[in-house]
Specification:
heterodimer; A: 431 residues; alpha/beta; 7-stranded mixed beta sheet; 6-stranded mixed beta sheet; 9 helices; 19 strands; 24% helix; 32% strand; B: 262 residues; mainly alpha; 0% strand; globular
Chain lengths: 431, 262
């Protein structure tokens, strides 16, 4: 059963060059057979997809790519020019949060007035009231005018009200990123609850980590066209790649100052001196694999093609968790290893003995730098950087039922002794 | 007739929104609702001074100053309610454009709310008028027709504002033009004078102005305890319904595309 079915959805905005053309156009007055009053701007150029009930789908794309237009069409706030969007169920659109806020009214009054705009009667709002207030955490400010609130407080109240409306489908546009970390955490919690309740969600965010963390599927829209639809990891990686490529086209050779940072956020140019031909994961026996158990050996094999002999090359491998957290860096020079890359094709292996990563899905970024000095901009400029989507999975041990965090750090256990050997204050009850 | 059904269905929401409109307007001001009385009283005073004293206008030579004042007030109060509704209503949808962009809120209620907020001021004025007339013992049973007059006026204004608020989004100069037009219309409407005082040759000016029928209706009912002219009321009521239906049709046709222009 689908919650949202979108078929060839297109939206054209009319751009009028002269202000009264708009009126003339609407009055139905013709400007003659050849002339038109407006220029066409196609914000969406025919998008087709469907979303099953209960799914959480991320929507990414650069500014002006048509994400917000798509959400407006889905919410019914705007009408499509062509095609159709069929939505089964009640939609809650968290697009512009502070809609309907009156700065001179108190938070308490605004809760009820926003309720009106959401189509919720007073009795319904009264039932939701306690939860809204608890979530917004305004304290004594609840009974003060909203204009006295900090931006964060306003956003908390707005998100709290907007997200409390009962709905089957929710459309969220870039609103999770407004608060501080604590509030973000609360939003995510609430968001998870909605997921469990079976709400269908479309989430627009520029924070790709959020997409990876919350979504089970990702759509990528570019210039009004759906260019990718698939697992978040693949789509986000492809999106990143396109952003890098784009930036490379605009500023060739642009790079960051810190050479060790292979982060996806930094665009580094692949050089001609050395290129990475491929990256794969192999097990202890040298057989390519994608699945690894904890404590076994995982090897990252990096294939390269070099135009010259590189005597003191540096190879770096960064491991990212699926939600974009950088888990660890392996940098050959930091480990005191000197690698001499021969001319032509070759491969380097980075061996992760006794894999300590917690169960989950991971990707890697790989860089080969022609010389040792990572701060040397020349070296960084001519580095080969590889960040195409290849992932490996660490399996959960059968005996463990809970999350293991990011890594399983090696530890030792021992008895510390009695109060006579450990400082006695340690055992005193703290007030 | 779908617009009557719509208005009825959303009656609770319209009521709450009107109250909210009011609250927002006067929250934070010290004198609050007193301001609502200040405007009609000020205009009334000016009218009396200019027309009654300086120009010495009288519809009837025997009419006392107070009676002339009441005559003006009976025209002025509904006029102010109408013009306030039209001016607020014309800009209302644009002012609340955020609602349109992000929610599926029934936008057609926004101009309606603006009209009712304008009518609320008129109700205060009418209450004051009734008080004065009551003290003078001039009130009769025909006052019971007031709700009918108010209803017809509301329908007329709502229809007008549905149309104007759309046009204002497409062409933003509309609200400026309306402001000017209202000033003009205020003097062209028989507020400080009656239809009978208009010189021969200019009667068309009053006869073509639908508001003169409305103002005359209020005057007959409040001041003279008489039935308003049935022909005049029939013309105005017919016009009100026609304007309402056309305005509604126009608004509903445009409401799907309006978000693209705000």
């Amino acid at each position: 059963m689908y919650a949202i079915v979108v078929k060839d959805l297109a939206k054209m905005y009319k751009l009028y060059n002269v202000s009264y053309y708009r009126l003339l156009d609407f009055l139905g007055l013709s400007r003659g057979p050849a002339a038109r009053y407006y220029d066409e701007y196609w914000a969406l150029k025919g998008v087709t997809f469907d979303i099953p009930m209960g799914a959480t789908v991320g929507l990414i794309g650069r500014n002006g790519s048509g994400k917000s237009t798509l959400l407006k069409l889905l919410s019914g706030a705007s009408a499509p020019t062509r095609g159709e969007a069929v939505v089964h169920g009640r939609v809650a659109a968290l697009l512009e949060l502070s809609t309907g806020f009156h700065p001179d009214l108190t938070g308490h009054e605004n809760i009820f007035s926003c309720g009106l705009y959401l189509g919720l009667d007073r009795p319904v709002m009264e039932a939701l009231y306690d939860e809204i207030v608890a979530f917004a955490e305004l304290g004594e400010f609840l009974h003060r005018p909203v204009r006295t609130y900090s931006t964060g407080m306003q956003m908390r109240l707005a998100f709290s009200v907007a997200s409390s409306a009962p709905a089957d489908i929710q459309l969220i546009d870039e609103v999770l990123g407004v608060g501080d970390t604590y509030f973000f955490g609360k939003c995510v919690q609430r968001f998870r609850r909605f997921q469990q309740e079976g709400r269908t969600t479309i989430l627009v965010s520029h924070d790709l980590g959020t997409i990876l963390r919350l979504c089970s599927r990702c759509l990528w829209i570019d210039r009004g066209v759906l260019v990718a639809d698939g697992s978040p990891l693949e789509v986000v990686a492809a999106y990143n790649q396109s952003v890098y490529d784009e930036r490379d086209r605009h500023e060739p050779g642009a790079m960051g100052s810190s050479g060790v940072d292979l982060g996806r956020s930094r665009a580094l140019r692949a050089s001609n001196a050395v290129q990475i031909s491929g990256v794969e994961f192999v097990d202890a026996a040298g057989v390519p694999a994608r699945d690894f158990a904890m404590d076994t050996t995982m090897v990252v094999r990096v294939g390269y093609v070099s135009q010259e002999v590189l005597r003191d090359a540096v190879v770096a491998v960064v491991v990212y968790r699926a939600d974009n957290v950088t888990v660890c860096n392996a940098i050959s020079s930091m480990d005191g290893v000197t690698l001499e890359l021969s001319e032509g094709k070759g491969a380097i292996e980075v061996v992760f003995e006794r894999l300590m990563l917690a169960p989950g899905e991971y990707t890697v970024g790989v860089g080969i730098y022609p010389s040792l000095e990572l701060d040397d901009t020349h070296s960084v400029q001519h580095a080969a950087i590889w960040h195409k989507p290849v992932s490996f999975v660490v399996r959960r041990p059968v005996s463990v039922a809970f999350e293991l965090g990011v890594v399983r750090h090696p530890v030792r256990w021992r008895f510390a002794g009695r109060p006579s050997t450990v400082s006695p204050e340690f055992f005193e009850e703290k007030a | 007739m779908s617009c009557f059904r719509m208005l009825y269905r959303h009656r609770y929401l319209i009521w709450r929104l009107t109250v909210l409109d009011f609250k927002v307007r006067y929250v934070g001001s010290q004198l609050g609702l007193l301001w609502m009385m200040a405007m009609p009283l000020l205009v009334l005073g000016t009218y009396l001074l200019v027309f009654g004293k300086i120009l010495g206008v009288r519809p009837d030579p025997d009419l006392s100053g107070l009676d002339y004042g009441l005559l003006i007030a009976c025209g002025l109060v509904p006029w102010l309610g109408f013009s306030e509704g039209v001016m607020r209503g014309t800009g209302s949808v644009l002012a609340q454009r955020n609602l349109m962009k992000s929610t599926v809120f029934p936008m057609e209620l926004i101009p309606v709310t603006a009209v009712f907020a304008g009518l609320a001021g008129q109700l205060c004025g009418i209450a004051l008028l009734l008080l004065v007339l009551g003290i003078r013992g001039a009130l009769g049973l025909h006052v019971l027709l007031l709700p009918l007059l108010l209803a017809v006026q509301a329908l007329f204004t709502i229809g007008l504002v549905w149309f104007l608020s759309c046009v204002n989004i497409l062409y933003r100069d509309t609200s400026q033009a309306i402001g000017l037009l209202m000033v003009l219309l205020m003097f062209l409407s028989p507020i400080a004078y009656t239809q009978a005082m208009v010189p021969v040759g200019l009667e068309m000016l009053v006869q073509c102005n639908p508001l003169s029928y409305l103002i005359d209706g209020y005057r007959q009912v409040l001041l003279f305890d008489r039935l308003p002219s049935l022909a005049g009321m029939a013309v105005f009521a017919g016009l009100a319904v026609a304007v309402l239906l056309t305005g509604h049709r126009y608004f509903m046709r445009l409401r799907r595309v309006l978000p693209d222009f705000v």
